[in-house]
Amino acid sequence: MHMIKIRQSLDTDMPAIERLYPAAFPDEDLLPLVKRLLAEEPDILSLVAEKGQSIAGHILFTLCGLSHSSNQAALLAPLAVAPGHQRQGIGTALIREGLQQLGSKGVDQVFVLGDPAYYGRCGFDPETAVAPPYPLPEQWRQAWQSLSIGPAQTPNQGKLLLPELWLQPALWAP
Fold it and tell me: What per-residue confidence (pLDDT) applies to 1?
């Protein structure tokens, strides 16, 4: 069995990343967003999980701010694991490594819009004080989650301030 190696993504990983997202999300076209974030957004943490000689997973964290706080924050999105490698801890390993790197960069809180059962296992809790860029449908309320990773003691409130690439209502609606 091959060990998993988590590392920063490289430009040479792009063909594998381009194959990964359609395989992991056949009903969602996340690839244009991923490609634009990697090409245009300087404040991004992009990690891949290598298993053997192949890319088994990829995760992005976009650095952002909060409307009523000087605390640094990040948005975890998206996270993709190849279908043949799911349920092996690869997504969790990518999240943990990302959180560790973000914490060392002074990020205080990480937000995600995703499955509460999955992200809850990594320590995320439903977020009610900091709003996403657009109102979420009622059925998604528990999916908006956060995890505090920094030393900041002040409770964060307000709205998540994201780069323009994330300010597309379609990304925040069913």
Answer: 46
